Amino acid sequence: MEREQLADFLRRRREAIRPAEVGLADSPRRRTSGLRREEVAMLAGMSVDYVVRLEQGRSSQPSTQLLGALARALRLSDDERDHLFHLAGHHPPPADEVARLARAGMVRMLDLLGDTPAVVLSDLGEVLAQNRVSLLMMGDHTGHTGDRRYMVYRWFTDPAARGVHPPEEQEHQARQMVADLRAVAGRRSSDPVVTGLVARLREASAHFRRLWAEHEVAVRRANRKTLLHPRVGRLVMDCETLLTPDQGQQLLVFTPADAETRERLELLRVLGTEEFPSEVSGRLER
C-alpha cells in the first residue's frame, strides 16, 4: 500500500470535482476547492474521520468495498479506479466484479438528472447506483447480497417486493421481468451467473417456472407503472430505459405521468428521508 501516493490521489480527485457534478448545491461562499471531506464521506457512506486519515496517509489498508464506494463518490473513470486499487495494495476488480460497478458516465448522468428519480441497473436488475430522489421514492436498493441483489429474484420469492404495485399490475410486471431475463439468458447463454440464477428461480417459484416455460422474450425500454408509496400514496410513473452499447448496464429514469403524481413527488422531496422503511423492495421492478 502506497499511503502517501494514495493520500495525494484522493485529495487531488476530491479537489477536482465541483459539487454540482455530484448533485450537491454550489455556493460562491465555498472556500474549499472541489468537494469537502464531509461531502465525500456522505457520498461514499463512511465516516469523515476515515476520509481525513486516508488523505493524511494515516489509515489502515482500505477494503475493496470501501475503495469501490470511494470510486463512485469521486466519479473515477475505469482507469482511475484501477489506479486507486493499485495504490491501496489491491488488484483491480476482475471483469465480473467490474460489471457490478456503475460506470462513471452513468453515475454522471444520475447527477445531471437532479430532481428526476433515476437508477443504474445491471442487465440482471441489480441496482448499482441511485440518485437522491430515487432513494426517497423507493428506498436504498444497493445493499442487498446474494440472490436478493436481483430484483427478479426478490419479486418471485418475497411478497413484499410485489406488494408495492397494485394487484392488477403484478402479473404484467412479472411477465416483463421474466421476458427481460430470457433476453439476457440468450445473450449470455454460457454465463454461469445467469444460468445459476435461472435454475435457483425455477426451484424457488412455481410462478416463475410457469412464465419461464412460455418463452416470452423482450428487452424493456419504456414502461408505465404505479407505485404504492407508504408516505405519499399512489405514484404513476413513466419509465424510460437507456442501455449501454453492450447492454450490460442501463439507466432507468422515472418521470411523473400526471399532475397528481408530480405534486406527490414534490411533497416527497420536501419530506425527505426521515424514517423511510428499510425494506421496500420492488419499487422499480421493470
From TrEMBL:
SUPFAM superfamilies: lambda repressor-like DNA-binding domains (SSF47413). Residues 34-81 form the HTH cro/C1-type domain. InterPro entries: Cro/C1-type_HTH, Lambda_DNA-bd_dom_sf, MLTR_LBD. This is Transcriptional regulator. GO terms for molecular function: DNA binding. It comes from [Actinomadura] parvosata subsp. kistnae.
